[in-house]
Every structure is written in C-alpha cells, then in structure tokens.
Amino acid sequence: MSTVQTPDQILGIDSVFSKEDREFAGVLRKWLDENVRDKIGDYYLEGTIPARELAEGLGELGVLGMHLEGYGCAGTTATQYGLACRELEAIDSGLRSLVSVQGSLAMFAIHHWGSEDQKNEWLPQMAAGKAIGCFGLTEPDVGSDPAGMKTTAKKDGSDWVLNGAKMWITNSPVSDVMVVWAKTEELDDKGKNIVRGFVIPTNTPGVEVPKIQRKLSLRASITGEIVLDNVRLPESAMLPKAKGLRGPLSCLSEARFGIVFGVTGAARDALQSAIEYTGTRIQFERPLSSFQITQQKLAKALGQYSQITLLAKHIGELKDTVGVRPEQISLGKMVTVDTAMNICRDLRALFGGSGITSEYPPLRHAINLETVLTYEGTHEVHQLTLGRAMTGINAFAN
C-alpha cells in the first residue's frame, strides 16, 4: 500500500504560503481542535454557539481584526487573515462568520471610517473579544440593492434620530455595539438621500435585537434583527469619514475576502473526513476507499480543492501587494463558494446513511455554504459584476 497523503501534501499547497503564515494557521488549528471541533456538531443541532467565550479565546490568539493596524489589532497580512478564516471555516462557517463580522465588518468600519474617539473606545475591546460587534445593512425587504434601504436618520438639533429595521444580522443578539447604515435627509448631486453609518451601543434606548429562529443553515451562528425605534444618538455616533454607499460596500468587500479563503477550509475538512471514513469503512470485505468510484470522487474533490485554494492565495497576494479590485473579489467568492459547496455535496454520498448525521461534517458544511452563497453578495450578483467587467454593460440597470 502506498503512503497516504493529506489533500494539502499532494500538491504541496502549504509551500505557497510563508513559514510565518503556516505557523500562525497551525496554532489556530490546534486551538480550534482542542476547544471547538468536538462540540461543533452539537452547537449546530442546538442552533447556538458560545459566542462570548469563543470571542475571548480568539481575542487572546489575536484573531479578531487581525488584519487591521493599531488599537490593539495585530496588523497581519491579508493572506495570514485569509488562512485564519480557512481554519475557522474548517470547523464551521458559523464560527468564521462570527470572526468575519467582528473584524471585517464592524471593526473595519470603525477603523476605516470612524473618528479617533470611536476607534479608541471600541477597537481595543473588540480586538480582545471583550466586546462583540455587528453590522446592520441588510433589511427585511432590501438585500442586494442597499440603495433601496428604508432605515432613516434624521437630525433633531445636534442629535440624530434613527428609525427602521435590519435583518439577517450575525451577532446582533449578543452584540455590545453595532454599526448601522441609514439614509439621511442630505441629498447628493443626483438628488438621492446620502447614506451614513452610525456606531450604536446595543443598550441604547429604542434598540431591540430579537434572535432569528428556525434556521436550516448556519445554525452554529447567532443571527438576529436590529429594530430601531426613535433611537436618539449624539453627533459623535456618526462615522465621520463615510459618506454614501462607498462606506458599507468597502466593508462588504473586506468580508468577502475572508469568505474566499474561508470556504476552502470547509472543502478541505470535508475531503479529509471522507478520506478517513472511506479508509476504515468496510464493504464487501474491503475498505470503501479501495473502490474505483470512491477514488474517482476523492480525486475530483482534490482537484477542485487545490484550484480554489490557489485562487484564494492569488487574491490574497494581490491584496497584500498591488491591491485587489471588487471584480476580483467577486470572482473569488463566486468560484470558491460554489466549488466548495459542490465538493461537500459530492463527498457526503460516500458516508452513506451516516453522512446525514452531525457526526460527520460534509453535509453540515454543504448546508452552511448555501447561506454563504447568498450573503455578502449573492452568487447571481457576483456573476453580474463579472459580466459588467467583461462586457462594459451594466446588467443591473433597467
């Protein structure tokens, strides 16, 4: 019998990453294996996750907002952050979502668009996992077209008064602070209401954050709403550097980058678990892995996993050097998520009946990726973004 190799060893995937990046990923993988892996199936079935406990542990490791500079953040490369997302999503997409929303949405918004007071107040706490953040953009009737948001922010003297509702907000029921985007009465040069962002402590009067129940996907993630009923805020709550949709869209681009890397972890975990299971499962007096159809499935998954991992690496390198454009992020998310989801679906069949239980990860990963396919820009939106880049024609317009 030949030597058994892991999915990463066959193509030498790890060799394309720096020693420092590999070492950090190894430390995080060890912590996750020791603290989360054996419990994640139960968290998924129970529809919850110990967000505060995990946030503090991940904060001690320096994972939260790790790609940001200063204010208690580690200031790592984008690629190292991507590898962290890969390890987190190898456990569960819900865990990566917790970190992604914290660092790439809430913290990034404050870091990039906030005042010094806002940065100093919130970022050190959030980096340490002592405060959990969320990001309020999506609304009950407004998803892919954020310009259609209905949440309003009106001036009343020197204060702002916010009214509206946000939907599908990761972390909101357990959050300490939220970044919320709203339309103001100020008009741009096209006569449209200008969007502004606000940093709001969750205990502010008029704020409610009900939990969304009965999810079939991303169950090991706490998802809720944000309901704003005449929420009065001082002028200092507004993100001073964000004016228009460029603010929230820049945050989404940051989060999408983490997804590009993250889903490769789900694919790797599904493939490794399938290799291990088929090597020990005996059928017709021989291991399931000895059958040609099994090996065909494993080989196909290996090829797909290797391709998306190298694509993620390339996008990380762009981000760390010359910069990455929105259409490049769209290409990454479109391809990696769809491919990872198909890998997990195909491999689930190798587990037979056991594959539909929480004991083995491929089906859980596949179901989670149905949500990842939708959030931070739906699959179709990224297709249209790339179509516009290739043809010069905006298919979003009427």
Name a few traits of the molecule.
Butyryl-CoA Dehydrogenase, subunit A, domain 2; 16% strand; globular; 11 strands; 398 residues; 12 helices; two-stranded antiparallel sheet; alpha+beta; Butyryl-CoA Dehydrogenase, subunit A, domain 3; Butyryl-Coa Dehydrogenase, subunit A, domain 1; 3 domains
* CATH first level of the largest domain: Mainly Alpha
Q: Could you say which overall geometry the principal axes of the C-alpha atoms support?
A: globular
Low-pLDDT segments: none
What Rg is obtained from the alpha carbons, in whole angstroms?
A: 21 Å
CATH architecture label name of the largest domain: Up-down Bundle
Can you tell me the CATH superfamily of the largest domain? Butyryl-CoA Dehydrogenase, subunit A, domain 3
Strand content of the residues, in percent? 15-25%
Major sheet? 7 strands, mixed
Helix percent band: 40-55%
